[in-house]
Design brief:
Helix 9 packs antiparallel against helix 10. The chain has ten helices and 15 strands. The protein is α+β, with helices and mostly antiparallel strands. The protein has a five-stranded mixed sheet with strand order 10-12-13-15-14, with helices on one face. The protein has a four-stranded antiparallel sheet with strand order 1-4-3-2. A four-stranded antiparallel sheet has the order 6-5-8-7, covered by helices on one side. The protein has three domains: 205 residues, no CATH class; 71 residues; 160 residues, Histidine kinase-like ATPase, C-terminal domain (Heat Shock Protein 90). The chain binds adenosine-5'-diphosphate (ADP). The site of adenosine-5'-diphosphate (ADP) has 21 residues, from helix 9 and helix 10.
Length: 493
């Protein structure tokens, strides 16, 4: 149960970890995609605006070069029909003066720099003026910023796009596209000068990506996929544990059967030895007496003597059979075994049996390991028998009254294992006979389990005792000699 729970926790932890890592990777991928899309759009915006402002330089240079005569037709006024962003065109002939003094200042600057210069930047009204000093006439153009933008080539939908695009000049801002800039999440920014010295504006673009923009659908799908994979993996682990447990039980069953066979043969030999001897002797005597008339007493005596010899031989054969089926001496297999581990492994094997009977076994053990000298297989068999007996006894009481405890303890020389149950207990008159071979109160029982356990315990230099458990139930106490400090073997090895 503990192992299954452990697996569940490990599975849950792994699920959380892999899901979190995957979701972070998915979120990063989505944010990178959004950032790249934003930067591509911002670069296109910058290039389009740069092309436009450079075009203004070219228009002014052409005007200065052509220097149309100052006649009434004023051809430069036709510019506005061709370039909708140019809203006013002014011209100052050599003798003339600018109506606005800012144009005069800009003209002086333009003459010094030999390129168009800004005269007035009024982002609040969405316009600016550009002056180019030339001979004999200088020109001033007024631009409508909104018309400067080539909207037909604009890479975003100006009303719907979440990207904010602003033109910045010396603290003034002109919003080309409002976008949606909220709080929280991630903010991408793009900042670059326009590629024209005469119109030194900055393009400033921003994009706010909120938590809702993360790929939640994919993340959920990933979490579900990881959960499915881990559930499959856990099922596989469970399957493997169940198979191992079944194999262990089979092995234990085989060992138990072999030992039970030995016990059976031993019991049968014990039971049959005397009757067989008597029967043989009587039969021989009777047959001889019946065959002779008058009976030949000398022959009868010889025959009886021979019969007795035969009977003794038969007894010897039975004795040999008994020796032949004797179990291997557990004392020969003794090694250091940690009781805690041995009990835990047996409880693990019996998990399904406990579950079937709604019994939750408890292990009360000191924190320091109790290490005894034992044959690991024999010890496992004893524990298995005692626990199975306890479970069978518990079947006879209501579920709510069922309790099974294995307590470990030690004194100066012995490690003590006590198996206690709250079943019907052992009646006082039954207690002295409980370790006798073939003694059983169960209809399907062989009555060899406890007798075998007692022999195994004795073979390991220990002992097994049965007691009444107060207030109700039975208590079996197995004592085994403590091991000197040293290596520890697993109970199933
Ligand atoms: P079997 O289980 O085949 O009967 P055992 O030698 O294991 O043989 O047990 C002998 C008898 O001891 C059982 O029939 C039962 O009456 C009694 N017994 C053993 N363990 C318990 C227990 N925990 N509570 C009550 N009686 C028990």
């Amino acid at each position: 149960m503990r192992k299954a729970q452990q697996h569940r926790w490990i599975g849950l932890l792994l699920w959380g970890l892999i899901t979190a890592l995957g979701c972070v990777a998915l979120a990063r991928m989505e944010l990178t995609r959004q950032r790249e899309a934003f930067e591509t759009d911002a670069r296109i915006v910058h290039r389009l605006l740069s092309q436009r402002v450079v075009q203004h330089d070219a228009v002014m240079a052409t005007l200065a070069l052509l220097q149309a005569p100052p006649d009434a037709s004023q051809p430069e006024q036709r510019l506005m029909a061709v370039y909708p962003q140019i809203t006013v065109v002014q011209r100052r002939d050599r003798a003339g003066v600018w109506a606005d003094d800012r144009l005069r200042v800009a003209e002086t600057l333009s003459r010094a720099l030999r390129r168009p210069a800004l005269a007035e930047v009024d982002f609040a009204r969405g316009r600016y003026q550009l002056v180019l000093a030339a001979e004999p006439a200088s020109y001033a153009l007024q631009m409508d910023i909104r018309q400067v933008v080539p909207w037909s080539e604009w890479p975003m939908a100006p009303e719907a796009s979440p990207v904010r695009v602003v033109l910045v000049h010396e603290g003034q801002e002109y919003v080309l596209q409002a976008g949606h800039i909220g709080q929280g999440g991630w903010r991408f920014e793009f900042h670059k000068h326009l590629a024209a010295e005469s119109q030194p504006f900055d393009v400033f673009a921003q994009r706010q990506v909120g938590w809702l923009a993360l790929p939640w659908g994919w993340m959920l799908a990933w979490a579900a996929l990881v959960a499915a994979a881990l559930t499959g993996w856990l099922a596989l682990l469970r399957q493997r544990a169940a198979r191992r447990r079944a194999e262990e039980l089979l092995r234990l069953g085989q060992v138990a059967r072999l030992n039970a066979l030995g016990e059976l043969a031993a019991g049968m030999a014990h039971e049959l030895n005397q009757p067989l001897t008597a029967l043989l002797a009587n039969t021989q005597a009777s047959s001889r007496l019946l065959a002779e008339d008058p009976p030949d007493m000398t022959t009868i005596r010889e025959a009886l003597a021979q019969a007795a010899d035969q009977a003794r031989r038969a007894a010897a054969v039975v004795g040999r059979l008994r020796r032949a089926v004797e179990r291997p001496d557990p004392a020969a297999q003794l090694q250091a075994v940690m009781l805690q581990q041995a009990v835990q492994e047996t409880l693990y094997l019996l998990e399904p049996e406990c579950r079937k009977r709604a019994v939750q076994p408890a292990l009360e053990a000191p924190s320091a390991p109790v290490i005894v000298m034992a044959d690991p297989v024999a010890l496992e068999q004893i524990l298995h028998n005692l626990l199975m007996n306890a479970l069978q006894a518990l079947e006879q009481v209501p579920e709510k009254d069922r309790s099974l405890t294995v307590a470990l303890d030690s004194n100066a020389e012995q490690g003590i294992t006590t198996v206690m149950d709250t079943g019907p207990g052992i009646p006082a008159q039954v207690l002295p006979r409980i370790f006798e071979p073939f003694f059983t109160t169960r209809s399907g029982g062989l009555g060899l389990g406890l007798s075998l356990c007692e022999s195994l315990a004795a073979g390991m230099g220990g002992c097994l005792q049965a007691n009444h458990h107060s207030p109700q139930g039975a208590e079996f106490r197995l004592t085994l000699p403590l091991a000197a400090a040293g290596g520890v073997a697993s109970a199933s090895s």
